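Sequence, please.
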């Protein structure tokens, strides 16, 4: 099938430069996915939770600042670690609310499940001085930077 309409009843072919037919090498295979290899609902939910955890990383002259939107989470449900020397790891879990007997959900769109985000910190990060705070569902992680060494300037006297 061509993305450009054929005029005058032309049929697409391999030799037609305006044909955008793409050969699919898997076309001959039956691609019906069996239940054994299809991703589980839990996997899809957890993947959505990871993908929906949005984090901003900005650099100021003094620090690297990470801000994560984590609505509905308490600070004890979030874990912040520095692993392997310079990898900042932010993880946690959004739990599912228990459904009451007299309640029925019509739609569940809020992500739930475990989330994990990792960031490789630059060489100038002071990983031993990382600080974190959480306010109104926004996690702020501050990683101070080591000051840049100022280049030495040496005056040279001119002889003669």
């Amino acid at each position: 099938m061509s993305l450009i309409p054929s005029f005058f009843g032309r049929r697409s072919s391999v030799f037609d430069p305006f044909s955008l037919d793409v050969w699919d090498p898997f076309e001959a295979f039956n691609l019906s996915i069996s239940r054994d290899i299809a991703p589980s609902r839990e996997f899809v939910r957890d993947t959505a939770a990871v993908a929906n955890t949005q984090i901003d990383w900005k650099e100021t002259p003094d620090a690297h600042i990470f801000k994560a939107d984590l609505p509905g989470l308490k600070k004890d449900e979030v874990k912040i670690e520095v692993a392997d020397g310079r990898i900042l790891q932010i993880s946690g879990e959004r739990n599912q609310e228990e459904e009451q007997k007299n309640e029925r959900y019509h739609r569940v769109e809020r992500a739930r499940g475990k989330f994990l985000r990792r960031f490789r910190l630059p060489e100038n990060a002071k990983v031993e001085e990382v600080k974190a705070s959480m306010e109104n569902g926004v996690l702020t992680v501050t990683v101070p930077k080591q000051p840049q060494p100022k280049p030495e300037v040496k005056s040279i006297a001119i002889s003669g």
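The beta strands are 55-59, 63-69, 78-83, 87-94, 113-120, 131-135, 138-144.
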